[in-house]
Amino acid sequence: MQSDRSNVTTGSAVAEVRAVADRIAANVATVIEGKPDTVRSALVALLSGGHLLIEDVPGVGKTMLSKALARSIDCSVRRIQFTPDLLPSDVTGVSIFNQVTRVFEFRPGGIFANIVVGDEINRASPKTQAAMLECMEEAQVTVDGSTYALESPFMVIATQNPIEMEGTYALPEAQRDRFMVRLSMGYPVEAAEIAMLSAREGVSPIDELEPVTDAGEVRKLIELTGRVHVSPAVQQYAVALATATRRSPDLRLGASPRATLQLVRASRTWAAMHGRDFCLPDDVSDLAPRVLPHRLLPTMEATMGGRRPADVVAQAVADVPVPRTG
Description:
This protein has 326 residues and is an alpha/beta fold. The protein has a single domain, classed as Rossmann fold (3-Layer(aba) Sandwich). It contains 14 helices and 13 strands. It has helices spanning 11-29, 36-47, 62-71, 88-92, 126-130, 132-138, 173-176, 190-199, 215-225, 232-246, 257-273, 281-291, 300-304, 309-319, and strands spanning 52-55, 73-74, 77-81, 93-98, 103-108, 115-119, 140-143, 146-149, 155-160, 181-183, 213-214, 251-253, 297-298. The protein has a 5-stranded parallel beta sheet, covered by helices on one side. Strands 2-11 form a two-stranded parallel sheet. It has a two-stranded antiparallel sheet with strand order 4-5. Strand 4 and strand 5 (103-108) form a beta hairpin. Helix 1 (11-29) packs across helix 2 and helix 10 crosses helix 14.
């Protein structure tokens, strides 16, 4: 650590980030057994001030992870059940004329909370999904010409089923790009599934979860992780990975500049969670498979050939030279 750089955190600040992250991870792990990497990846989005998309088949614990993470923090939490008949005003809010005062009053929608759990987000119409764009990018809502700020921290934790499943709509590219991290739960290992059968007889473990931190502390940690030092070499490495996706013949849409920004932001948090006040190239390459693939669009030829965006990112990580930082 070099004290003359204002963007470098102190050792005690990094220790605080790591301690709180471990506390939340342990709390969530009492509900989500056998998925430590998935839980810690979700924490990256939380402590980076980003949004989280959890995509997988029904019944593997997507909503359970969302609720466990939300319940681990003493803050305002709201859940929105996305359905085909959900209206944009249900999400953002609406102005209603008060017959007594003879003025319009704003009634906040479901998005007004520190943590918003969006269940099966891709079952809502594209019009309703588009209502989330301003909220997720600018932490504000504009209704009838008036803008209302969303309280910090603000995080959307959305779940979705694969688009091949009945009754789902593909998320717009602009909305997918606003999610910092995308996770897949996967099926639990056999031992964890057996333990789940015994632990959940007659009671849901989510009901017994108690908060282990609060909104104020999360807000502080987001500010601290944003000050972790990223050297020019590591910045260039992140840009090189994004550029490799833009040049890939298997993609018709590569990583956006927003993707590069969020990759570096997430890498800062990942470094702090590992007890460092500086980023390594390994932090960037570790997180690239979780931050980049959901933003990319494959060509028709790549899709028919079974080449996925995740494969393109993996190839970019393998091909792009790793800079020396020492």
